[in-house]
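Figure 3 (text version): structure tokens given as input.
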């Protein structure tokens, strides 16, 4: 069956179609600067081919989730699931031939790359009997197949690049047709871009990108200036699925719209009558209010936490028949076990629920008959141990814990790390030390973490002229020494 997807009109007003079967065999690369109309082009292609072929969209900004209302695409919010779950979903998507939008909105760049790699690998590794044809659209492909290294960890970059390379190089035999869009050809890995045989090039201003686009379109360098003069929504097309010679296409209208849109000018508000300088530079009023404590009657533990606690109570132990251990001895064993878990370098990037299972096993090995901590208490003690506080934090750090109640549980470790340095007069912890207690390797994420804690009026950060940082905790009256390096 031959299906021609109407993409728009050429310069003479004649319709230009995209041969869907040919596209499945030869793949597509879309390039254009921000605002050139790439997302509009992808939406036109998806809308006009919906119902003819399975569609899978990897969406970094969550703009394509609106397809679900009109065309029945299933929207998956990646931030709500683990990498293992995402890979499992990908296998089921191939089995049931469902059209989906994987929204990566809300994830950091590193999390987006991990999730996209797991998802693409899950589709790629599906059983042979599920190799049905599918369009796999990847928006902002330079994020997932970067030409060089960035702020993300090297193993994450390699995993994401490998998954994208498999999609474009080996995906055709498995029925996967890659449709990738990028703002910058220079930032996209060449081995990924080179596998596309169809090209739609939009407005581009940088010389290096114009030169690469002209090479892909078979144009001479002096003709590359035409790419800079393209109107928004107009693309130069070339490839076996669309045209044998470069043709300009004005992309047609779409029926759905993105959740975000281009900024529009709106009238400025009227200036207040008072003194603007005093209004803008007035000191902030403290607005922190301790949150209401959550009572056991209203607390609803997560399903995974409830399951882990039930398993901990149900698993028999040979120590159950032995004599009860003295509280002081049991507390010492708990401290030693937590110290050993924190000393394991791999534990820094494991979730508390996973480490809790390790904690239970270690406790039984030292003769503790019943788990001395539930998952919630273990998470609290683990955060304190990562901050170098190995005793009972409730006894010695009650003031700090009270102040930290306004923060999410995963921020307790970094807060206590800074609090310990401030209380003991130590230098301010470095971003790398804070990252280790937060379970991340991204320094950008650490900086956003500190900004968030400061926005809750728990930290006041100062940078001296040498670039050394010190942090004050106003509610406690504690201040760290300046950091050892700028």
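Below: residues designed for each position.
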């Amino acid at each position: 069956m031959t299906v021609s997807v109407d993409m728009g009109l050429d310069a003479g007003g004649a319709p230009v179609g995209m041969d869907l079967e040919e596209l499945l065999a030869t793949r597509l690369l879309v390039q254009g600067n921000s605002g050139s109309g790439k997302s509009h082009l992808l939406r036109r292609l998806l809308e006009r081919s919906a119902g003819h072929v399975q569609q899978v969209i990897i969406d970094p900004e969550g703009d394509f989730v609106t397809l679900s209302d009109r065309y029945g695409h299933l929207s998956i919010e990646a931030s709500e699931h683990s990498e293992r779950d995402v890979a499992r979903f990908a296998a089921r998507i191939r089995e049931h031939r469902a059209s989906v939008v994987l929204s990566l909105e809300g994830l950091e760049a590193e999390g987006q790359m991990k999730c996209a790699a797991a998802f693409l690998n899950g589709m790629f590794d599906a059983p042979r009997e599920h190799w049905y044809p599918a369009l796999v659209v990847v928006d902002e492909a330079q994020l997932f197949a970067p030409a060089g290294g960035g702020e993300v960890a090297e193993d994450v970059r390699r995993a994401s690049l490998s998954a994208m390379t498999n999609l474009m190089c080996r995906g055709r035999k498995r029925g996967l047709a890659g449709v990738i869009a990028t703002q910058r050809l220079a930032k996209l890995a060449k081995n990924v871009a080179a596998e596309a045989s169809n090209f739609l090039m939009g407005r581009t201003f940088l010389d290096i990108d114009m030169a690469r686009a002209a090479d892909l379109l078979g144009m001479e360098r002096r003709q590359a200036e035409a790419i800079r003069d393209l109107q928004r929504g107009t693309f130069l097309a070339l490839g076996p699925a669309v045209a044998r010679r470069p043709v300009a296409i004005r992309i047609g209208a779409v029926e759905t719209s993105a959740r975000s849109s281009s900024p529009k000018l709106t009238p400025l508000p009227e200036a207040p009558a008072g003194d603007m300088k005093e209004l803008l530079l007035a000191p902030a009023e403290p607005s922190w209010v301790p949150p209401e404590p959550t009572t056991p009657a209203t607390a609803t533990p997560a399903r995974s936490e409830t399951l882990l606690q039930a398993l901990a109570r149900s698993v028999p132990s040979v120590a159950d028949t032995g004599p009860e251990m003295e509280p002081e001895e049991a507390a010492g064993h708990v401290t030693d076990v937590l110290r050993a878990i924190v000393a394991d370098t791999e534990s820094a990037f494991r979730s508390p629920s996973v480490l809790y299972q390790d904690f239970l096993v270690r406790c039984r090995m030292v003769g503790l008959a019943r788990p001395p901590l539930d998952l919630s208490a273990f998470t609290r003690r683990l955060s304190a141990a990562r901050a170098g506080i190995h005793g009972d934090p409730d006894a010695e750090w009650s003031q700090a814990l009270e102040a930290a109640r306004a923060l999410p549980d995963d921020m307790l470790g970094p807060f206590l790390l800074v609090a310990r340095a401030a209380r003991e007069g130590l230098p301010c912890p470095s971003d790398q030390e804070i990252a280790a207690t937060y379970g991340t390797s991204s320094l950008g994420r650490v900086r956003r973490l500190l900004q968030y804690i400061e926005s809750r009026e728990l930290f006041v950060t100062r940078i001296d002229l040498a670039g050394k940082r010190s942090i004050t905790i106003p509610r406690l009256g504690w201040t760290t020494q300046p950091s050892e390096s700028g």
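Residues 327-343 form the longest helix (17 residues).
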